[in-house]
Design goal:
Shape: globular
CATH architecture of the largest domain: 3-Layer(aba) Sandwich
CATH superfamily of the largest domain: Glycogen Phosphorylase B
Number of strands: 13
CATH topology of the largest domain: Rossmann fold
Strand content: 5-15%
Largest sheet: 7 strands, parallel
Order of helices and strands: HEHEEHEEEHEHEHHEHHEHEHEHEHHH
Helix content: 40-55%
Distance between the termini: 73 Å
Strand order of the largest sheet: 3-2-1-4-5-6-7
């Protein structure tokens, strides 16, 4: 009896073909069942279900980015569809007549809904269009991304904005990085629209309402607002920073990053036990940071984007700890220059080194009285937060104009 012999090279090739064929069949079957489910649910891409204006929110934490634009559609009595991945998104309690809110689930469930959308324009803060699960569809006329921060667009993960038709900016400096990456990657130029910052507009109004609520003006309040991970200030310094702060008599608010609760729970519990009886230290875990921002006289942070929120909204000083951030997973790794926020933080804030901790009171007093820091942060605010108070109107204007332009083109044929 002769045995069938297959040489290693041929065997490897056949194995690869088998794996490839199996994967192809799996994804074809998966696509078929998704399409069947969508068809049966009545959410097909037919004209009957065409939605001119759609906003997608990954969760309730992004509500303030969209709120003023949603209110603008309501005021103009123009129907808008707001899709959210949070069942308790504030939109559902907004008492809107012209805004239809829809909970579409999270993750793949939400992307499946969006991938079979038939719309004039889809606006979102979600990056990675046509890179991850969220795909471009011919049944959507225009894909637009609105930045949910005042930092650099290159701070997104690789290819985060590459395949959008437009990006709504908060400051003109953001154009530089986008155009650089388009040229480097041979991409079609996107439409860049100066819209301002919706969430800063909302927060600014809230802060105006909170003025005059400071508990004891004679006691300085220090807000410690870290990022999470090995380079975050709580992880890196912990009690070595908090001990001298509390000993100096400041009111200290510690606001951990939301991810710290999941990834650094043991660290937080250890610190909470250590300061359980420290009357001038408190922990802030509220969903919105606006109350802590308004109470603080100065902030200590690392590389968190909350630095810019605080500086722009409150016009107060920041101490930052120097960090070496690994840029390889981000679009910033392809730039031939530093990001705006990297250079800006060095001008608007004062660096805090570990050797300064024993005399932290001196460092804080210098920052509070520095005219140079005051001028620098006001200049940065003018650059990064343009068209203050107008974001809702400008976003609505842009969405409406894109759908009307598409309608005019169709009528011309």
């Amino acid at each position: 009896m002769r045995l069938l012999y297959i040489d290693p090279g041929t065997g490897s090739m056949l194995f690869s073909i088998l794996i490839g064929a199996s994967a192809t069949l799996y994804f074809l079957a998966r696509t078929f069942f998704i399409k069947l489910k969508v068809l049966l649910s009545g959410t097909t891409g037919t004209g009957k279900h065409f939605l001119p204006y759609v906003i997608y929110s990954e969760g309730k934490q992004y509500w303030n980015v969209f709120k003023n634009a949603v209110d603008e559609f309501e005021k103009r009595e123009i129907p808008l569809t707001f899709m959210s991945s949070s069942p308790d998104d504030p939109v559902f309690t907004g008492q809107y007549k012209f805004v239809r809110a829809e909970y579409i689930g999270e993750g793949n469930r939400a992307f499946a809904r969006l991938n079979f959308l038939h719309a004039g324009i889809l606006l979102m803060t979600t990056p990675g269009l046509d890179v991850y699960q969220l795909k471009r569809r011919k049944t959507v006329g225009h894909y637009s991304h609105v930045l949910h921060m005042t930092g650099d667009p290159a701070g997104y993960r690789l290819f985060g904005l590459d395949y959008f038709d437009s990006v709504l900016l908060s400051g003109s400096y953001q154009e530089k990085d986008i155009r650089f990456l388009e040229k480097l990657r041979n991409l079609k130029p996107k439409e860049l629209v100066m819209a301002g910052s919706g969430y800063l507009d909302v927060y600014a109004e809230k802060i105006r309402e909170m003025r005059g609520r400071k508990e004891s003006p004679e006691q300085l309040t220090v807000l410690v607002s870290p990022s999470w991970g090995d380079q975050g200030i709580l992880n890196r310094y912990g009690e070595r920073l908090l001990d001298p702060l509390t000993a100096a008599g400041y009111r200290v608010i510690v606001r951990p990053h939301p991810q710290s609760e999941k990834s650094e729970g043991a660290l937080l519990k250890k610190l909470e036990r250590r300061y359980a009886d420290t009357r001038n230290l408190e922990w802030d875990r509220e969903r919105e940071n606006i109350v802590s921002l308004s109470r603080a006289d100065i902030m200590i942070s690392d590389f968190s984007g909350i630095i810019f929120d605080y500086v722009f909204l409150c016009d107060k000083p920041v101490l930052y700890t120097s960090q070496d951030m690994d840029l390889r997973p981000y679009d910033a790794s392809d730039l031939d220059h530093e990001m705006w926020q990297t250079t800006a933080i060095r001008s608007i804030g004062a660096e805090l080194r570990e050797e300064d901790f024993p005399r932290i009171g001196e460092v804080i007093n210098r920052a509070l009285s520095s005219a140079a820091l005051l001028q620098a942060r006001q200049k940065a605010a003018r650059e990064a937060w343009q068209y203050r108070g107008e974001a809702g109107k400008r976003i609505a204007d842009f969405m409406i104009s894109k759908v009307r332009q598409a309608a005019d083109v169709q009528e011309g044929f």
